[in-house]
Specification:
With 448 residues, the chain is α+β, with helices and mostly antiparallel strands. The chain is built from 15 helices and 23 strands. Strands 3-9-10-16-13-12-11 form a 7-stranded mixed β-sheet, sandwiched between helices. The longest helix has 20 residues. The radius of gyration is 25 Å and the shape is globular. The structure holds adenosine-5'-triphosphate.
Length: 448
Amino acid sequence: MSKEVTLETLTNLAKRRGFVFQASEIYNGLAGFWDYGPYGVELVNNLKQQWWRAVVFENREIFGVDGAIIQNPRLWKASGHIAGFSDPMVEDLKNGKRYRADHLAGTDSTDLNVLSELLKDKKSPDGNQLSEPRVFNMMMKTWIGPVENDSSVAYLRPETAGSIFTNFENVRETTRSKLPFGIAQIGKAFRNEISPRDFIFRVRELEQMEMQYFIHPNDQQKQYERWREFAWKFLTERLGISEENMQWHEHEDQERAFYAAAAHDIYFRFPHGFKELWGTHNRTNYDLTCHMQESGKDLTYFDEATRERFTPNVIESSVGVGRMMMAVLTNAYTEEEVNGETRVVLKIAPVIAPVKVAILPLSKKPELMTLSDKVYTNLVRSTGYNIEYDETQSIGKRYRRQDEIGTPYCVTVDFESLNDGCVTVRERDTMQQTRVKINDLESHLKIR
Ligand code: ATP
């Protein structure tokens, strides 16, 4: 990462190259909501695919689900979200703007007394007087059916974990699983964040990748360490994120959810500082216990071998897709001097790059276009990669464009190709060019 990558640089690149647009941009946007453009959707899909592979496919005892976004509100009563999913906020008494009290106070504490003390002489960012801090519930509400009253209220899920807990018994039974086993889910979640900001870092509609691992209480420490290590390795080894840009952050007592026995977040060096990217939490048996109480259903587990009945503990691994994308872009953003010009290049791990290969005919002569089209079609079909075909502008501009979206390989088809059946492959990071036989093209690409 070049040192000077700012939020502005990143936001501009994302917009200019079609990764991320403001939602409803032509209506001046909507705070906390973003749309992914052509390259954003590819990058996000690749991140989700890698995570799913690493979690679900590579662990025989982990299974996927895809739960509904709206669930019976009793689920959120049981989980404590209706009563307690809140952040402390303060209001600018002049213009009504709301802020996270803990952020303004520069603390991890969410205790109202502590915050009130820290903020007593502070002004709002606009220089006005602030209200006393108070708690604000972040659940987004809707109504089910034709009548809008208290009995038809429902909530958009604030995290995906809810339907994992309620499906614990369904999944255990249908997969005939014994402990330990896990359930994974990728999906949208909604949080009415008080002050969405910092590009896609803090949004109101987010997507999470979560995995709950159900274990015997004796297994807590070992599994906690295992899933912490998993998160670290996924980011460094699969996504190629530099360890220099990562650090562990252990939750202090006042920061940790009251049910969690331990919580470690991986912080990433975002353009606005080291911030939370991925959480690993020991949720004890809190969730299953609450759902048993609220539903009256038995969610205990019987261990045939030891003849023991108990409520499983849960280790949770939870990461936001958008934050992961922002971390990948920040980590990959590089500016280099090449022949007195600045080259902007996204050094994204090839496996998650939005476009794997760009096929670039050197001219628009029909014979070259026919050959290029054939190379393109064959390669798309045989590899299944997202491949781009670009015949516009000068070759230099086309390379620059592909560098900026992180395409690992550019393939130029020139007049010589018609005679020798070879193309020139340019590698993104080294800019090295190699002459390769069209038939050997696929094996030349190192995508994994
Ligand atoms: P924060 O302290 O930043 O508000 P959190 O501790 O509430 O986050 P969790 O509830 O543990 O977050 O959610 C798990 C993951 O989901 C986070 O690590 C983050 O990657 C992502 N996430 C949570 N809230 C948001 C948000 N508003 N916008 C984008 N991603 C989010």
